[in-house]
Specification:
There is one protein chain. By secondary structure, the chain is of the alpha+beta class. It has a domain of 71 residues: Trypsin Inhibitor V, Chain A (2-Layer Sandwich), CATH 3.30.10.20. Helices cover 27% and strands 21% of the residues. The longest helix has 18 residues. The protein is elongated, with a radius of gyration of 20 Å. The relative contact order is 0.18.
């Protein structure tokens, strides 16, 4: 027999727990440009996400979603390896913003 407490609070706790378990927690996407595949996989794993890799060798040259954006746990983070770094706002060789370039 369920108590009044269980009827009034039980479903609220269950709903909250379901959100936690199914990926409702927000995480910040790390900056992965320039990292090795292994280092990028570790960083993505630390935010409880999955890594998808395009390319076979080199360092991370592009990523999606963008770094420092919010994502939910369990989402796939796609990294691209090799070639030139794809940095629309910065230095194509380092991935750094233009003001951070050491050229």
């Amino acid at each position: 027999m369920a108590s009044a407490w269980g009827q009034s609070f039980g479903s609220a706790w269950g709903d909250a727990w379901g959100t936690l378990v199914t990926g409702g927690l927000a995480e910040t996407v790390p900056y992965l440009i320039g990292q090795t595949e292994a280092a990028a996989r570790i960083a993505v794993g630390q935010i409880y996400c999955v890594t998808s890799v395009v390319g076979t060798e080199g360092t991370v040259t592009a990523q999606s979603p963008s770094p420092f954006t919010s994502t939910v746990r369990g989402r796939t983070i796609t990294i691209t390896l090799g070639g030139e770094i794809n940095s629309p706002n910065g230095n194509s060789r380092t991935g750094l913003p233009p003001y951070a370039s050491r050229e």
